[in-house]
């Protein structure tokens, strides 16, 4: 078998692969996976089971992951249900599967041990995190959603799991000023393609995780010969980078130049990036719910 599998998208290794790849891939053994849920606020996925390796992406609380191997050292190798990303993550951040009823829609929200903002918080949940709400209660006029583990979050920070926003670009703009983090996928820090993926998901548009995948598959290709003709919501790609058009001559992107999510004049961004290793614009694409992924 000569097919080459992208390690980021296919649970295939020389020594182990998912059972679905039997007959398609060369591996010493094929196994059934076991589905777990991410219980940590966010969980790093790495290309190897080593803490000194850069992260590829992050799994968010409530997302499901199919695990094909767990090691005595506390590592799990598996594939995210959300976008199909494959990698190594900490077994300590995984637990039993529960069906999500809601998603975090605020940039981030505190999770409390009970329904009271005066309680010391247990941590922060980022936009896109999934939770199971079992009830609601009001404390001093503020409504809290009670989660399946007994903890609580402010109810107005959540939306139903299948909720879609009309203007996903406005959601991307809410991340303005968020620190740039290579491999990050939360409102505490994220990279260029995660910004686009997380925002688009709020509009019901599922797209791949990394910029090269998005450039090849997200939405439909459009001309980028005249940047002034691009519309709000159009994606512009460079080698290893993506940003979104928010208005005339305006690009929003998580970038290593400002190390934040920032606006930049499109003409200036094109000239600046052309002078770097990333070079000229390579493609433009337009998203729609009909053209998701």
UniProtKB/TrEMBL annotation:
Residues 162-288 form the NlpC/P60 domain. The keyword Hydrolase applies. Residues 207-227 are annotated as: Disordered. It holds the Pfam family SH3_16. The keyword Kinase does not apply. Keywords: Hydrolase, Protease, Thiol protease. SUPFAM superfamilies: Cysteine proteinases. PANTHER family: MUREIN DD-ENDOPEPTIDASE MEPH-RELATED. Belongs to the peptidase C40 family. This is NlpC/P60 family protein. It comes from Roseibium sediminicola.
